[in-house]
Design a protein that fits this description.
This protein has 2 domains: 120 residues, Alpha-Beta Barrel (N-terminal domain of MutM-like DNA repair proteins), CATH 3.20.190; 124 residues, Helicase, Ruva Protein, domain 3 (Orthogonal Bundle). The longest helix is centred in the C-terminal third of the chain and has 20 residues. Helix 1 packs parallel to helix 5. It has 5 helices and 11 strands. The protein is α+β, with helices and mostly antiparallel strands. It is elongated, with a radius of gyration of 20 Å. The two termini are 28 Å apart. The mean pLDDT is 93. Strand 7 and strand 8 form a beta hairpin. The strands form 3 sheets. It has a 5-stranded antiparallel β-sheet with strand order 2-1-7-8-6, with helices on one face. A 4-stranded antiparallel β-sheet has the order 3-4-5-9, with helices on one face. A two-stranded antiparallel ribbon has the order 10-11.
C-alpha cells in the first residue's frame, strides 16, 4: 500500500505538470472503485487546478468550483503521460489537461477512490476527523503522550491509528519503533514521556528520509514518471524476518499486530 512518503512523492511529481493547468476532459473507464466515481466529477472540466495538496494519504486537486479527492488505496498509482498514450488494463481514469498532459490513475485492486466535493474540503466526512500530520509542529511529544495515556493497545497499532496521527503506515511504524528502541507490543499507555519524545523524533526522521529518497518501492508503486522509490534499501527491520539485526546481529522477529505483519529486534527493542 502506498504510504505517506509515497503519496507525498506522488504529489511532488504531478504538481509541475497539472498545477495552473486547465482540465479539458475526464475519461472514466471504470467507475467502480472503493466508492463509485460520482458524475459530479465532470464539474472539473474547464476548470484550472490552482493547487495540489496532500492531507494524510489523500491528494486534493483544488479548483474554483470544488476539489477532487484522490486516495490510492492498496495498489493505486498516479502517472503523468502524454495525451494519446494508450491506456492499459488497470488504467481507470484520465484527467486530461490543455497542455496535452494526462493524469492517469492505475489501480489493479480498485480499493482507491476519486471523489468530488463543492464544499470546503476540510469539512468532508473523510477529512474532518483526521489527526495531525506527523511532520507538523502539532504532532509533538506533549500531544502524543496525552493521547497515549491509559491506552492498552500496542504502541505500534496506536501510532498507525489515524485518530491519533495520520500517515504512519505499517512499514514506517516498524522502522520508527526500531529507531526509538521501543518494542511494538508494549501498551501505548506504558511508554514513558522520554520514550514518546524519542518516538516522535524518529517518526519524523524516518518519514522525512523516505520522502527525500522518493518513497519505498513495493510491487505496486512507482512515481509519476515511472521511476521506483529507493527507501527500501535503507529498511532496518521491515520484511527482514530471520535476518541479522544491523545493530546487534540478533535475528529479526516477525509477529502480527492489528492484522499487519510487524518486525522488530528482540534485543534492541524492549
Amino acid at each position: 500500500m502506498p504510504e505517506l512518503p509515497e503519496v507525498e512523492t506522488t504529489k511532488r511529481g504531478i504538481t509541475p505538470f497539472i498545477e495552473a493547468q486547465t482540465v479539458s476532459q475526464i475519461i472514466v473507464r471504470q467507475s467502480k472503485l472503493r466508492w463509485p466515481i460520482p458524475d459530479s466529477l465532470q464539474a472539473m472540466q474547464g476548470q484550472i487546478v490552482h493547487r495540489v495538496k496532500r492531507r494524510a494519504k489523500y491528494l486534493f486537486l483544488e479548483t474554483d468550483v470544488g476539489t477532487c479527492l484522490i486516495h490510492l488505496g492498496m495498489s493505486g498509482s498516479l502517472r503523468i503521460v502524454d495525451q494519446g498514450t494508450e491506456a492499459e488494463k488497470h488504467d481507470h481514469i484520465d484527467i486530461i489537461f490543455d497542455n496535452q498532459k494526462v493524469l492517469r490513475l492505475r489501480d489493479p485492486r480498485r480499493f482507491g477512490s476519486v471523489l468530488w466535493t463543492d464544499q470546503a474540503v476540510e469539512e468532508h466526512r473523510l477529512i474532518c476527523k483526521l489527526a495531525p500530520e506527523p511532520l507538523s509542529e502539532t504532532f509533538n511529544a506533549d500531544y502524543l503522550y496525552q493521547q497515549a495515556k491509559n491506552r492498552r493497545v500496542s504502541i505500534k497499532v496506536f501510532i498507525m491509528n489515524a485518530h491519533y496521527v495520520v500517515g504512519v503506515g505499517n512499514i514506517y511504524a516498524s522502522e520508527a519503533l526500531f529507531m526509538a528502541g521501543i518494542h511494538p507490543t508494549r501498551a501505548a499507555g506504558q511508554v514513558s514521556y522520554k520514550q514518546i519524545l524519542t518516538l516522535v523524533e524518529c517518526i519524523k526522521t524516518v518519514l522525512s528520509a523516505a520522502i527525500e529518497q522518493g518513497g519505498t518501492t513495493l510491487k505496486d508503486f512507482a512515481n509519476p514518471q515511472g521511476k521506483a522509490g529507493y527507501f527500501q534499501v535503507k529498511l532496518q527491520v521491515y520484511a527482514r524476518k530471520d535476518q541479522p539485526c544491523l545493530k546487534c546481529d540478533t535475528d529479526i522477529k516477525q509477529i502480527k499486530l492489528g492484522q499487519r505483519a510487524s518486525f522488530y529486534c528482540p534485543i534492541c527493542q524492549c
